[in-house]
Amino acid sequence: MFEQLALGFSTIFQPDNLIMIFLGTIVGYFIGAMPGLTPSIGIALLIPFTFTMESVPAMVMLVCLYIAAEYGGGITAILINAPGTPAAAATALDGYPMAKRGEAGKALTISIIASGWGSLISSILLVFTAIPIAKAALNFGPAEYFALAVFGLSLITSLSEGSLVKGILGMCFGLLLITIGMDPVNGVPRFAFTNSLFGGVPFLPALIGLFAFSEVLFMIENADDEPAEVQKIKGIGIPFSILKKMKLTLIRGPIIGYAVGVIPGAGATIASWISYNEAKRASKEPETFGTGNPEGIAASESANNGAVPGALAPLLALGIPGSASAAILIGALTIQGLQPGPLLFVKHPEIPYSIFAALIFAAPMMTILGLFGARVFVKVTLIPTRILAVVVAAITVLGSYAYSNDMYSVWVMFLGGVVGYVFRKVKIPNTPVVLAMVLGFMMEVNLRRALITSGGTPELLFSRPIALILLIVSVITLIVPVIKEYKTNKRKAVA
After folding, report:
1. Is the pLDDT higher at 189 or at 162?
2. 181 phi and psi, to 5 degrees?
3. Euclidean distance between CA atoms 357 and 329, whole angstroms
4. Phi and psi angles of residue 182, each rounded to the nearest 5 degrees, phi first
5. What is the pLDDT of residue 267?
6. pLDDT value at residue 158
7. Which of 24, 92, 207, 249 is the residue whose CA sits 20 to 30 A from 408?
8. Residue 465, helix vs strand vs coil
9. Is residue 407 predicted with pLDDT exceeding 60?
């Protein structure tokens, strides 16, 4: 393992890879600092620029963008009380009060250092846990992979943003989309009424439409909103003694972040709130949280950045995304001709080990860039919404056209944007659509292989222990939220 990790470091220290790490970091900071532009949107916008790149520089750039966007979200949370990412919402509770009383520099320093520390510790945990998971998964057959895909789809309960029914509707729409095109087993066309659809609905243009172009439509709708006033930054830096007082929080935060991030669908937002609540619970002065306690910033930022490497663990080891951004990264790997999962460590070990090395190397680099560039990154919030909408729209069109060099992909992107806009208006989340498009193919192909192996009966699915356990856990994952929601509604009715 250590020899391959050393190989990963030697790979990322090549000039082209270092440039991509730096570029991904800078773009990620700007994406994270702009409220409304999430890491998912940033990755979707940047994927088209990786078409002509080698696999390693392409993936390290996207991964660094992902983690830097989580860093950047805390900047606007502190300075204008507008979290750049949902995971930075807990940061705003104490960060903005500190900025209002003239301690913006101190709050930013704590935020950036805690983010870098959380990312570094979590990346080390990723190295030591992803490989054993991948080795265990090498024994999987069609039945296990089918059950794994079903388990991944069952995680819509945590991606449904409050409504399981609407999450299921989004998932069903995604599953419907993957039935278009050539049958993966028999090679028979399905629902392909034009030659362009024989290859199925193009994943990347649909993805860009659902996330990025739908956001453009919301920007246009809210184009009259005035930019928020930015608090002045009066000096960056804090005494080491302040960080020393937070040592338990800085140890606990990354561990919580990684543990929550590994759970597919949980994500950085949940990690940051759990860590924040634990820090408040363990504090001798819990009443100071929410009024400008630096420990609240450290708890939130160390956890939400620690969740990013955690989300990459199931992606690299099992081929299941740990978050919406990780689901889009699976698409990026697929476009590069790579299949995420245990075989990635066998057939293309340079990819996961380069990602490990890039995460460990990028943590201190992002910290330094964050400390010196905070004043610059926050300026992005001063860009008028109408101008930002035009820029993002242009990138979506360019990226979609580059996918196949014809207007067909652009029309798919436009249609995906309209669908994504309508879905968000009626509170149907877009992430289950992407999850279904990513895992649906894996589920269908392995189900049919398992049925062929067992002579057309589902016996194989229930005779393999791992597959059976995964299917049972999937059912529990779906049923428990339904029972909780029923009990909650019943209590409300009684009240």
Report:
1. 189
2. 120, -160
3. 17
4. -80, 135
5. 67
6. 56
7. 24
8. helix
9. yes
Range of the domain at 127: 2-494
Phi, psi torsion values for 12, nearest 5 degrees: -75, -15
Tell how strand 189-190 and strand 181-182 pair up. Answer: antiparallel
What CA–CA distances, in Å, run from 23 to 12, 17, 63, 64, 365? 13, 10, 11, 9, 12
Whether residue 36 has pLDDT greater than 70:
no
Q: Higher-confidence residue: 207 or 423?
A: 423
Between 380 and 438, whose confidence is greater? 438
Alpha-helix runs per DSSP H in 283-406? 294-318, 324-335, 342-347, 350-377, 385-404
Residue 253, both tokens: 């935060």
CA distances from 138 to 223, 343, 344, 465 (A): 51, 7, 10, 15
> What is the chain's alpha carbon radius of gyration, rounded to the nearest angstrom?
22
Q: 325: closest CA among 25, 47, 23, 27?
A: 47
| C-beta separation of 122 from 63 below 8 A | no
- Tokens for 124, please give them: 């080390």
Q: Compute CA 381 distance to the chain's CA centroid, rounded to the nearest angstrom.
A: 22
Look at residue 294 in the predicted model and tell me its pLDDT. 86
Helices 55-80 and 104-137, packing angle to 10 deg: 140
Number of domains the chain contains: 1
Identify the three-state secondary structure at position 37.
coil
Contact 434, 324 (CB under 8 A): yes
d(CA 449, CA 185): 9
Collapsed DSSP state (helix, strand, coil) of residue 190: strand
H or E stretch including 113?
Answer: helix 104-137
User: Taking Cα atoms as reference points, which of 483, 489, 440, 464 lies closest to residue 141?
Assistant: 464
Crossing angle (nearest 10°) for helices 104-137 and 350-377: 170
> Distance between CA atoms of 322 and 438, rounded to whole angstroms?
12
Q: Which of 400, 478, 483, 485 is nearest to 171 (CA)?
A: 478
Contact 301, 122 (CB under 8 A): no
CA distance 433 to 176: 10
Strand partners, 189: 182
Q: Record the pTM.
A: 0.70
DSSP string, 414-463: HHHHHHHHHHHHTT--SHHHHHHHHHHHHHHHHHHHHHHHTTT-THHHHH
How many angstroms separate the CA atoms of 458 and 416, rounded? 35
Helix (H) or strand (E) holding 20: helix 15-33
Tell me the C-alpha to C-alpha distance, in Å, between residue 488 and each of 54, 482, 485.
51, 10, 5
How many Å separate Cα 212 from the centre of its chain? 14
